[in-house]
What we know:
Elements: E1 2-7, H1 13-23, E2 28-34, E3 51-53, H2 60-70, E4 74-78, H3 83-95, E5 100-104, H4 113-125, E6 132-134, H5 138-146, E7 154-155, E8 178-182, H6 191-201, E9 207-211, E10 226-230, H7 237-241, E11 246-249, H8 258-265, E12 270-273, H9 279-282, E13 289-292, H10 299-308, H11 312-326, H12 331-344
Parallel strand pairs: 1-2, 1-4, 2-3, 4-5, 5-6, 6-7, 8-9, 8-11, 9-10, 11-12, 12-13
Helix pairs in contact: 1-12, 6-10, 8-11
Amino acid sequence: MINIAFLYSELSEYFIGCxxxxxxxxxxxxxVIHWRINQDAPFNFNLSTEYRDKSKFKDxxxxxxxxxxxxxxxxxxxxxxxxxxxxxxxxxxxxxxxVTTIIGLDNPWRGTLKQKLSSLVFKNTLKRSFDYAWxxxxxxxxxxxxxGFKAKFIKKGFYSAEIDNFSENLSKSTFSKRFxxxxxxxxxKGILELIQAFKNIAADDWxxxxxxxxxxxxxxxxxKGVKHYGFVQPADLPEIMxxxxxxxxxxxxxxxxxxxxxxxxxxxxxxxxxxxxxxxxFLEEGVNGYSFSxxxxxxxxIVLKQIMKLPExxxxxxxxxxxxxxxxxxxxxxxxxxxxIIEESSHVRN
Length: 350
């Protein structure tokens, strides 16, 4: 029997879906310790007994005892931001050197001074505590290498949407003239600029539908043709998707963006900023959408106008391509990667 412990940060529906994909594998026991549910994103998770809220433990001593009683042979941690997780993992590994340890990373390598310094510190202090790095894509692979991980100990495909949950629009014979944004109403998401760009293009027969909430909520101007849904539970998102349209994620900073995978699975053409990490897997320029740069003045407006001019049948075909690209990563491939790590590791206990 292999016991796997996840010392996780904020829960998400897609991560829970990935956990479901490994629960069906015989010979595995799962334990997930997670942060308290974020009040800015009040998801209604239907959690099973494998999940424990970190804040419910009296202190780190109780959390450490809980983990030791579970006796994991594999431990995953979400980065190294949670000092409690790192301390507990290091202590457990000292007692049980045979344990396999995995760190999840989603920050892309940008070569900043801060990253260079933090990678140097990690390499000299924390690297010895981890066997593998599990990352979403290529830019995160580069970061993992700078942290001291050799290529054979870096795995990709850590983030996966529950693609089967999203309705496909492939059977549609007509295309809905609407752009859809889904994300936090925050500066880094580019929501204010998107609304202004939509206003500037003055497309009377198109609409902009925005899903989410956040600190910029009160700053959102009332613009004709713009509809706001507020915060939407993941289970309700497919119903909104059924109408179709074009997905837009204009983020100024987006390490990955699982929402891209979700809308790709639902058959949406894409407009993504060049800062969206998931673009490397789910967008092929001119095939299922376009990218734009915040460094180029009015580039978002130009791309919005460009895609609006396309024939309806071409937009429908772009949506079908998005759905096709969404199959590149799945909860099943996520589970296979985890099993690959377990099988490769020389530390796994029999």
